[in-house]
């Protein structure tokens, strides 16, 4: 977005590959034209959210947010051909400034309309990030606390229809970046309060380039162009996302002309898709790490020596290479180059060391107790293959792991806060290019793994909380960098989880579609990122 003004294939897949070859000479249909003369897009996608809760932080929710919502401040992803630009640019806010150490002022863009025809004002912005919605006793979008919380924010004031001020309890170094997060989107106060959160989540209204017109749970979501969009006329007249969980069916639909774009193409099929002249593939490396959570609430993995042994027993580099080739890598703990000055290239986490794993198990008195690894079916590409490989590696260390596969994140997390689950698959999005996420925003006391949360798995040591609270309000970059290092040191010692790999994805599409996927999950089909060649 720019500022406006090697693996053997299972039998069914081998049969499918033969089908691809048979279609080699087929001529694909172009994106359909609507009466407006603008194409319609049909996108085959692996999964969709069951509601359109704007403040929900999950990969499936995040994908659709830029279709119908706008952030107050935006990250300029498409400033680079790879879709991973880091600079932040004005969006719904035309400008912002820190007018006092604890006061930030935002000047809003005039004439921005919501899908219901009302104009956006400072009242909408104050409501979107204020008490009752993002923070407070019982916020309607509780995940908003990860970036906007009552401990940080003292209040939000409407100065005039196009000016809002946010008061903080301490100087906040990263306030503008908070609006680049997955909860930084603006909603209409009047409509939200009129219909209530439940209805809003099913029939959302935003300021984005497309408005939602149809939602069928687990099946499809449709959006139509919002021609009053402040950023210009949307390039597509209509976008339909259809849920097709099976990757082979998505590819077949692309070849037959049913789909214009498909998501989550597995790496071993990329060359096959690219062999068709009418198609092209775009790879994206996400700022997202697939992880395994290790519960500190489970009676066996409550001992950190066992948690540490689980990591030392795994050759994760070899596993990632076997599953992904050179497409991705195993990250060191919270050491990401896009952290800029906070990136530590010398950071090292726990490495494969079978003898160390056995020593830790003996020290902890582990006696072959069964540990369950809960996997969400279809949640993360290759995760079921990885679970089988890990179980065999753990077996060599003498660790008895049973794999459980559940459909859906809610079923996968069932019983987690009660200590019924030893390990569970998850992912960590690096939502903003700053070390506040994910170690504090995701793993901290406002994140989903904290005590009291629905997916609680980590009873934090007090040292982690104390350092994190200091980190949250520190405005001196050198001191903040040292506090971040301490947070990572505590996390590595406690081992409430471990990364598997950085997530990679491939999108396949018809060649005439000019569109760039971003390094985070957002799918942007607005005027700055979508066009059609003739």
Observed structural traits:
534 residues; alpha+beta; 4-stranded antiparallel β-sheet; globular; disordered N terminus
| Low-confidence runs | 2-27
Structural class: alpha+beta
Q: Helical residue percent?
A: 25-40%
Sequence of strands across the biggest β-sheet = 8-9-10-1-11-16-12-15-13-14
**Molecular shape:** globular
Q: Helical stretch count?
A: 14
Mean pLDDT: 91
Strand content: 15-25%
Biggest β-sheet strands, sense, barrel: 10 strands, mixed
The radius of gyration over CA amounts to 23 Å
Q: How many distinct beta strands?
A: 18
Measured distance between first and last alpha carbons: 23 Å
In words, what does this structure look like?
The protein is built from 14 helices and 18 strands. The N terminus is likely disordered. About 45% of the residues are buried. Helices cover about 25% and strands about 20% of the residues. The chain has a 10-stranded mixed β-sheet, sandwiched between helices. A 4-stranded antiparallel β-sheet has the order 4-5-7-6, with helices on one face. The chain is α+β, with helices and mostly antiparallel strands and about 525 residues long.
What is the strand and helix layout of this fold?
Blueprint lengths: L10 H12 L17 E6 L13 H10 L4 E3 L12 E3 L2 E8 L2 E6 L13 H7 L24 E8 L2 E6 L6 H4 L10 H14 L7 E7 L3 E6 L12 E6 L3 H10 L4 E2 L7 H5 L4 E16 L9 H9 L3 H9 L29 H11 L5 E7 L6 H15 L2 E7 L2 H5 L9 E7 L32 H12 L3 H18 L2 E14 L2 E3 L14 E3 L2
Parallel strand pairs: 1-10, 1-11, 13-14, 13-15
Antiparallel strand pairs: 2-3, 4-5, 5-7, 6-7, 8-9, 9-10, 11-16, 12-15, 12-16, 17-18
Helix pairs in contact: 8-10, 13-14
């Amino acid at each position: 977005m720019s500022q406006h003004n090697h693996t053997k294939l299972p039998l069914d897949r081998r049969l499918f590959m033969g089908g691809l070859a048979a279609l080699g000479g087929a001529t694909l249909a172009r994106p359909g034209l609507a009466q407006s003369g603008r194409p319609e897009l049909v996108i085959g996608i692996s999964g969709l959210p069951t509601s359109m809760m704007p403040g929900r932080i999950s990969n499936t929710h995040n994908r659709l947010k830029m279709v119908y919502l706008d952030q107050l401040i935006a990250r300029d992803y498409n400033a680079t051909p790879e879709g991973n630009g880091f600079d932040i640019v004005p969006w719904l806010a035309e400008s912002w400034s820190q007018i006092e150490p604890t006061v930030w002022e935002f000047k809003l863009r005039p004439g921005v309309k919501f899908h219901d025809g009302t104009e956006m004002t400072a009242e909408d912005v104050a409501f979107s990030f204020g008490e009752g919605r993002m923070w407070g006793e019982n916020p309607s979008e509780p995940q908003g606390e990860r970036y906007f919380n009552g401990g940080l924010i003292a209040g939000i004031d409407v100065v005039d229809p196009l000016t809002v001020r946010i008061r903080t309890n301490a100087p906040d170094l990263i306030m503008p970046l908070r609006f680049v997060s997955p909860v930084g989107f603006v909603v209409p106060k009047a409509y939200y309060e009129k219909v209530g959160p439940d209805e809003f989540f099913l029939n959302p209204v935003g300021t984005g380039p497309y408005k939602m017109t149809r939602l069928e749970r687990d099946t499809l979501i449709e959006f139509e162009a919002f021609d009053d969009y402040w950023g210009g006329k949307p390039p597509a007249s209509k976008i339909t996302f259809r849920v097709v969980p099976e990757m082979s069916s998505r590819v077949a639909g692309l070849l037959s002309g049913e789909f214009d774009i498909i998501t989550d193409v597995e790496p071993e099929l990329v060359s096959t898709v690219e062999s068709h002249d009418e198609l092209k593939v775009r790879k994206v490396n996400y700022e997202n790490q697939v992880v395994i959570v290790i519960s500190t609430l489970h009676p066996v993995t409550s001992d950190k020596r066992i948690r540490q042994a689980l990591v030392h027993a795994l050759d994760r580099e070899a596993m990632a290479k076997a599953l992904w080739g050179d497409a991705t890598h195993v990250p060191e703990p919270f050491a990401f180059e896009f952290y800029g000055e906070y990136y530590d290239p010398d950071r090292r986490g726990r490495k494969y060391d079978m003898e160390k794993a056995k020593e830790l198990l003996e020290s902890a008195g582990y006696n072959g107790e069964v540990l369950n690894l809960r996997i969400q079916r279809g949640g993360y590409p290759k995760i079921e293959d990885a679970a089988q490989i890990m179980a065999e590696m753990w077996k060599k260390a003498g660790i008895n792991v049973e794999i459980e596969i559940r459909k859906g994140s809610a079923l996968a997390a069932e019983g987690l806060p009660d200590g019924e689950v030893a390990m569970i698959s998850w992912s960590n999005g690096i939502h903003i290019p700053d070390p506040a996420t994910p170690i504090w925003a995701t793993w901290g006391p406002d994140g989903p793994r904290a005590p009291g949360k629905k997916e609680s798995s980590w009873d934090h040591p007090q040292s982690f909380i104390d350092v994190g609270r200091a980190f949250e309000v520190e405005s001196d970059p050198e001191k903040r960098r040292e506090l971040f290092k301490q947070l990572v040191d505590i996390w590595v010692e406690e081992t409430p989880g471990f990364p598997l790999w950085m997530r990679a994805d491939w999108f396949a599409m018809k060649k005439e579609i000019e569109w760039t996927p971003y390094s985070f999950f957002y799918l942007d089909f607005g005027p700055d990122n979508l066009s059609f060649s003739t």
